[in-house]
Design brief:
2 domains; six-stranded mixed sheet; Immunoglobulin-like; globular; 5% helix; Maltoporin, Chain A; mainly beta; 22-stranded antiparallel barrel
């Protein structure tokens, strides 16, 4: 009998334990009611029954605002969400032993009482970290009020900007630039010059898509740099009837900028526009070059010194219109015009040739001027319709872009007399134009719980032309030179189809896709040396990534992708640039598509105070396109070829640490080993290279914000040489007035030592060149901006199966929980 009692007691204890040990995963997503973006690091408390004194479970939302919280037991529960500066949200729910309970989408709105009465000093995370992409929140970085987009890129993970403003993404200079998710031809072809003229405050986010997946075009070895501009979100679940905007003016020792942004919404129609104009100047730049050539006549030396002034004018206008046609369909229309004007004026140069075939030598001086004007238009229309449910949709898109460019260059020589070089004055007038018509259809459909399938098709008609006219004579009496002129047309038709599967299975996420692109190419020479030809080829482009969520605040991922790079007209155009009498520069119409393979291992750690990303990458390409030099007929030739085997192994790291409520420390850097080999040139170059950006953002008394950034790069390697590193220091002081409507900031930029000095070195079979460029980048700028608006919130009706009847009384700011914990 005693034994039966013991067994009965043990059985009851096991039953009770099994009942209470049973857990249900409560999940959902918490969004900002105004922006419809995820609310990161909101504190979650779950209470049993009506007891709201001691929570039985605690955690935080992740970067996207999602949560998955295990809860033990059955019965009635209350979940409570709190975040700094927001009204708290509560929901009642019942558990009956089910495996999961989906609370759906919940919304938080600003707490106007807190915003008016409490000084909110919490810092919003600047970076959203995923396995296949990073998103940098430019709008919440204090430096965005006074910096350019190029300067902000130095802070963005996986992006490097060197001393000559050359940009690399994921270790590669081959990448594509998108604006609001659409490719931008002008920015892709000249990103450095454009970004250094764009004020950062017109950009909301910068996305670095390191593993673009099958839905994106296959081009861009390094991935995609996607700029999300400030605009009204017509698809948000909360409307904003009214208008708001910002006007900005900046003046400094290197130029001035004026810009404006405005958005408006009435009912189902939203409108936004960005406008800007900037003027930059860089005077007193100097270039010194020493070139040694070895031939049958011995060693000849060229010594070159130039002083020049550079001016850039940049203007951009963008307008977007959104219309929620009904509850299941919407229409978006956008148009933008971009104009870039670059001038090198009064470039005075002196050249001395000696030794070798030049004997005792001779010298000459020259005056060089060049003007480049590039105007781009982009227009697009997108129609989206939900097919029976909100997670199944179809999107139809059309985009047209045209980018005409005109370049004029003059070279006038003061000849002392020689029989070696042609020093006739010369003038060239080139007109390049690129046009694209793009049509695309995309479908998104769920396959099951946590699984989706994206598939679609795209056709691109890409047309490029280059008409270069060459003149010789004496200024202003130039004579047309037919032999040195060329008219070249290059047409591509690209048909693509893709499918991409994504699934989430507990802590494991998987995404895999396949894209096929077939290209029909037609090349014609209207006049000039060259033979017409046609060819077609296909590219099968796979991609995949695997993600494991170690916890709610960390994940680990492994990605693979193959990317291609189609050479643009500047690489293909065989027109010979004879501006410099000692050298020739031309493209190569026989270039093939570059194919690169990338493998990344990614680790992300994030909390409300500390964020870290580590990315270890390995990339290789057996037919990389490289610029190279060689001597022929005593002239240095510069062209391109698929001549390099490129291997890169690197580690990138990003750290964002909110040390205190007023202090933030940033680090963005990387180290890599590069190995470049060419059988064609019988050349190999290899070595370590590194870059680092360290920044401190400090809130001082009287809400004055101070930002200090130090940037440093080591030398970087090319096939035939290297480019030296640099060190730059910048600081910004920022203060807001009139309830944050008026903002005033002062920014200063300086190299560590005097001017910014860059050394470029290259060595070939029979030559050696050393070039030193000195750039006076020291600058002081004053920035003033004013925000205005009369926006009124109007909540839309949102269907939900969750009851909104019961709320917990709002808690004070002092009761917010800053530490992460959970079951």
């Amino acid at each position: 009998m005693k034994n039966l009692k013991v067994l009965f007691t043990l059985a009851m204890l096991m039953l009770v334990q099994s009942v209470f040990a049973q857990k249900t995963v409560v999940k959902g997503v918490l969004l900002d009611s105004l922006t419809n973006e995820g609310e990161p690091y909101a504190t979650i408390r779950i209470f049993k029954g009506k007891d709201t004194t001691t929570p039985i479970a605690m955690s935080v939302t992740d970067l996207e605002g999602t949560f998955n919280q295990p809860v033990s037991g059955k019965g009635s529960f209350i979940i409570f969400f709190s975040s700094v500066g927001k009204e708290s949200v509560t929901r009642n729910f019942e558990l009956n032993g089910q495996a999961t309970l989906d609370l759906g989408t919940l919304y938080m709105k600003d707490d106007m009482r807190q915003l008016q009465e409490v000084e909110v000093v919490a810092q919003k995370p600047l970076v959203k970290m995923e396995v296949d992409k990073m998103s940098y929140d430019v709008s919440n970085d204090v430096d965005a009020k006074s910096n350019t987009v190029l300067e902000m890129l130095r802070k963005v993970p996986m992006v490097t900007v060197d001393g000559q403003d050359n940009i690399t993404v994921n270790g590669s200079s081959s990448f594509k630039v998108y604006v609001d998710g659409k490719p931008n031809v002008m920015m892709s072809s000249n990103p450095s010059q454009i970004f250094k003229s764009m004020p950062a405050n017109i950009v909301k986010n910068i996305e670095v898509v390191t593993n673009p997946g099958a839905k994106y075009d296959a081009e861009g070895v390094g991935g995609v740099l996607n700029l999300i501009l400030n605009k009204q979100n017509g698809m948000a679940q909360q409307s904003m009837d009214g208008y708001n905007g910002t006007v900005r003016a900046m003046i400094g020792t290197r130029g001035y900028v004026g810009s404006g942004y405005v958005s408006a919404q009435q009912g189902k129609v939203s409108l936004s526009a960005n406008m800007l104009y900037s003027h930059n100047k860089m005077n007193d730049m100097t270039v010194d070059m020493n070139r040694i050539q070895h031939d049958d006549n011995g060693k000849s030396i060229m010594e070159y010194a130039q002083k020049l002034n550079m001016k850039n004018n940049f203007a951009m206008g963008n307008i977007s219109l959104g219309w929620d046609i009904d509850s299941i369909s919407n229409l978006g229309i956008s148009a933008s015009i971009t104009d870039f004007d670059n001038r090198n004026e009064d470039g005075l140069a002196g050249t001395r040739m000696s030794g070798g075939i030049y004997g005792n030598g001779f010298g000459y001086s020259s005056k060089e001027n060049s003007k480049m004007r590039n105007t781009s238009f982009n227009g697009s229309i997108d129609y989206q319709r939900y097919l029976g449910r909100k997670d199944r949709s179809m999107t139809l898109s059309y985009m047209y872009t045209t980018t005409p460019q005109r370049t004029k260059s003059y070279s006038v020589f003061d000849e002392e007399g020689n029989t070696y070089l042609d020093l006739t004055d010369r003038y060239s007038n080139s007109r390049n134009r690129t046009q694209e018509h793009i049509g695309q259809i995309d479908f998104v459909t769920p396959l099951g719980k946590g699984q989706t399938l994206d598939f679609g098709a795209k056709y691109t008609s890409h047309t490029s032309s280059s008409k270069s006219l060459y003149y010789l004579g004496t200024d202003p009496q130039y004579t047309y030179n037919e032999k040195g002129s060329m008219f070249y047309k290059h047409n591509d038709g690209i048909l693509a189809g893709y499918a991409e599967y994504a699934g989430q299975f507990g802590k494991v996420g998987f995404k895999s896709g396949l894209r096929y692109e077939h290209t029909w190419q037609d090349v014609k020479y209207v006049f000039g040396s060259g033979s017409d030809f046609t060819k077609n080829y296909g590219n099968l482009v796979p991609s995949a990534n695997l993600q494991y969520n170690i916890s709610q605040t960390s994940n680990l991922g492994l990605t693979y992708n193959m990317r291609i790079s189609r050479p643009g007209i500047s690489y293909l155009n065989p027109y010979v640039d004879r501006t410099n009498p000692t050298s020739l520069t031309y493209g190569n119409p026989d270039l093939e598509v570059e194919k690169a393979h990338n493998i990344n291992m990614v680790y992300n750690l994030f909390s409300n105070k500390f964020m870290m990303n580590l990315s270890f990458r390995q990339s290789f390409c057996n037919n990389a396109i490289e610029q190279y030099n060689f001597y022929q007929d005593n002239l240095l030739n510069t062209t391109y070829g698929n001549i390099v085997k490129n291997r890169q192994t690197g580690l990138n790291s990003y750290v964002n640490w909110s040390l205190t409520k007023n202090t933030r420390i940033l680090f963005n850097g990387g180290v890599s080993y590069v190995d470049l080999r060419s059988k064609v040139l019988d050349t190999r170059n290899h070595g370590w290279q590194a870059n680092a950006m360290v920044g401190v953002q400090q809130t001082l008394p009287a809400k004055i914000q101070l930002s200090v950034n130090a940037m440093s790069n080591t030398k970087s390697y090319t096939l035939q040489g290297y480019r030296s590193g640099f060190n730059i220091l910048s600081a910004t002081v920022n203060k807001s007035f009139c309830k944050d409507k008026l903002n005033v900031s002062v920014i200063g930029v300086t190299p560590f030592f005097g001017k910014l000095n860059i050394k470029n070195y290259s060595k070939g079979k029979n030559f050696e060149t050393t070039q030193k460029v000195s750039v006076p980048v020291n600058a002081v700028l004053l920035n003033v901006s004013w925000s205005f608006g009369n926006t009124k919130h109007r909540a839309k009706q949102i269907k939900s199966n969750i009851s909104n009847d019961d709320y917990i009384e709002h808690q004070s700011e002092s009761e917010q929980i800053n530490n992460i914990s959970g079951n």
